[in-house]
Write a structure and sequence with these properties.
This protein is mostly helical and 227 residues long. It is built from seven helices and no strands.
């Protein structure tokens, strides 16, 4: 009798008990994947924080210490950002699958509505398994990681470098002194400061542009769903 009931449920677009069990194991696997890749994201962020701390210790250790470590560490943080953006693209795949199963399988089941194949979520999930693809571009992933974490890391680096030039070892008395402190070997202080401004302006622009694109995309999706 139970088998007959399950057969009728499946025929009407529902899932049998065995299929629900498979989906439950699939959900556990996707949660594990998303958790593992989330740990990898935290690792690269932690590396960035540690390297910034080391550069601060070196540059502020003595009055005559060079601010160069704060510049070099910014380049290293960019490498960590690139690694983290790549990892985020993988993490976003597992997270999206988990979220889809939570909203379209677990939530209706807990509400007592049952789970049915409506041709939307199940087709979307099936296609994603058959032809896996990234859900966000590399630049979009970079923009998200900058807004979530790296904007604060870059701000700390910029503030520490500016403080080193302005007040350490002694407060500035004139503008030429700022340029002399910022100079790196044959590279003039003016050139170093201009490069620094362009560097920070570039990641700020990337964060804002990707945020704008995401906002426009979500608005279009909302209008389509309403229509």
């Amino acid at each position: 009798m139970q088998g007959a009931n399950e057969g009728r449920d499946a025929a009407h677009g529902g899932f049998s008990a065995a299929e629900i069990g498979v989906i439950a194991h699939l959900y556990r696997a996707e949660v594990y994947r998303s958790t593992a890749w989330r740990s990898r994201l935290d690792n690269t962020t932690n590396w960035s924080v540690v390297t910034i701390g080391v550069a601060l210790s070196l540059s502020y250790s003595t009055p005559g210490a060079s601010p160069l470590p704060l510049i070099l560490v910014a380049l290293l943080v960019v490498v960590f950002l690139l690694l983290e953006a790549r990892r985020y693209r993988y993490f976003n795949v597992w997270r999206a699958r988990c979220r889809l199963m939570e909203t379209d399988i677990l939530a209706p089941m807990l509400a007592g509505e049952g789970v049915v194949r409506d041709g939307k979520w199940n087709t979307l999930l099936s296609d994603d398994y058959r032809q896996p693809r990234f859900h966000v571009s590399y630049l979009l992933a970079m923009g998200r990681r900058i807004r979530k974490n790296y904007c604060y890391i870059f701000l700390i680096q910029a503030a520490a470098y500016s403080g080193k030039l302005i007040i350490h070892p002694t407060p500035l008395t004139h503008l030429n002194e700022l340029f002399s402190r910022a100079a790196i070997g044959p590279v003039s202080g003016q050139a170093v400061l201009v490069c620094g401004v362009l560097f920070h302006a570039s990641w700020m622009a990337l964060a804002l542009l990707t945020l704008r694109n995401e906002t426009l995309y979500r608005r279009r999706r909302a209008l389509i769903s309403i229509g």
